[in-house]
């Protein structure tokens, strides 16, 4: 009975033959395969990324941002972040990925101490900014952990070497910008030797201070330096206010001296001319000239002598009526 029921079973489901069912299944399978192939081949590259396409494990091409396609099973795409990243040093904390971020207890000043050229120590903290420039070289050189370690080693060694060429006072005060520029240049040169497709874009010194044990003394020295600068500024301002007046007074005295010199010179030249004229007159008439000079001299003397009395040489007394100096007559 069962055999009869099986032999009478109808394979035509909903009026379709087995061939049609198999064709439909193959169509569905083909669509699934096509969808998988499309899904495997298509990928999206974000605006801050580039995709490195590897064909059989070897570099093939670099794809820019947008919707891209690759050969499934043959090509492999590696997305590389091209945006700028920063690393806080000397600890090596990457702000974007939090890589190698130490605990707060381990971020002590002892790790950030750098020996200066005069054998003092300074606490130096700085930021390094970097980015990938050639993704095809980068993926074959480093992974994210390795690049952080390389940058950390290069940055620390470079900063220790450069700070070692400057004194503690220069490092803490006037040479900060120079140290930062020199460190940036040397770090760029060091990464060129790796040929890893990355570059340092900027370096910023954040905190350059003395150790806590000597910070009060350093602050006292800075206060003294600032006081010295203030005193120098005040003295310079006072000098600038007094110096123009002194120069004006000196110029006035010089002009007065020059005027007096010219006046005395003119007077001397006039006296010389007068004497020369008298000398010429004297040569022409010596006696007359001598008599004239005598009279002129006596005139000047009498003009300053006050009251004058002129006596006759034959006068026997000042008062003629009084016979002074003669014997009295007998009565």
TrEMBL record:
GO cellular component: membrane
Membrane topology designation: Single-pass membrane protein
Biological processes per GO annotation: proteolysis
Domain Band: 40-222
Transmembrane segments: 21-45
A Pfam family it matches: Band_7
Top-level taxon: Bacteria
Subcellular location: Membrane
Key words of the record: Hydrolase, Membrane, Protease, Transmembrane, Transmembrane helix
CDD domains given in the database record: SPFH_HflK
GO MF entry, a single one: peptidase activity
Primary site of residence: membrane
NCBIfam families in the cross-refs: hflK (TIGR01933)
Subunit structure comment from the entry: HflC and HflK may interact to form a multimeric complex.
Role according to the record: HflC and HflK could encode or regulate a protease.
Membership in a protein family: Belongs to the band 7/mec-2 family. HflK subfamily.
Protein name, UniProt field: Protein HflK
Gene responsible for this protein: hflK
């Amino acid at each position: 009975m069962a055999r009869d029921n099986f032999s009478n079973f109808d394979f035509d489901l909903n009026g379709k033959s087995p061939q049609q069912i198999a064709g439909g299944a193959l169509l569905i399978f083909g669509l699934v395969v096509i969808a998988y192939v499309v899904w495997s081949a298509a990928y999206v590259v974000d605006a801050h990324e580039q995709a490195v396409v590897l064909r059989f494990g070897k570099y093939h091409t670099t794809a820019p941002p947008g919707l891209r396609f690759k050969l499934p099973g043959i090509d492999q795409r590696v997305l590389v972040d091209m945006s700028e990243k920063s690393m806080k040093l000397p600890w090596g904390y990457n702000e974007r990925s939090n890589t190698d971020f130490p605990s707060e207890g381990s971020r002590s000043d002892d790790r950030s101490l750098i020996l200066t050229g005069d054998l003092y120590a300074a606490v130096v903290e700085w930021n390094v900014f970097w980015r990938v420039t050639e993704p095809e070289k980068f993926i074959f050189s480093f992974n994210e952990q390795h690049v952080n370690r390389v940058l950390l080693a290069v940055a620390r060694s470079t900063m220790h070497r450069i700070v070692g060429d400057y004194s503690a006072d220069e490092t803490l005060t006037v040479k900060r910008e120079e140290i930062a520029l020199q460190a940036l240049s040397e770090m760029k040169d060091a990464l060129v030797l790796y040929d890893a497709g990355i570059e340092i874009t900027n370096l910023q010194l954040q905190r350059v201070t003395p150790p806590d044990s000597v910070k009060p003394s350093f602050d006292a020295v800075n206060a003294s330096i600032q006081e010295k600068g203030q005193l120098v500024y005040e003295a310079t301002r006072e000098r600038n206010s007094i110096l123009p007046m002194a120069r004006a007074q000196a110029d006035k005295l010089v002009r007065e001296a020059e005027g007096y010199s010219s006046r005395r010179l003119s007077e001397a030249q006039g006296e010389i001319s007068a004497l020369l004229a008298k000398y010429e007159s004297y040569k022409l008439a010596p006696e007359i000239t001598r008599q004239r000079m005598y009279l002129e001299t006596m005139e000047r003397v009498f003009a300053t002598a006050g009251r004058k009395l002129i006596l006759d040489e034959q006068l026997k007394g000042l008062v003629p009526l009084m016979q002074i100096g003669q014997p009295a007559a007998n009565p």
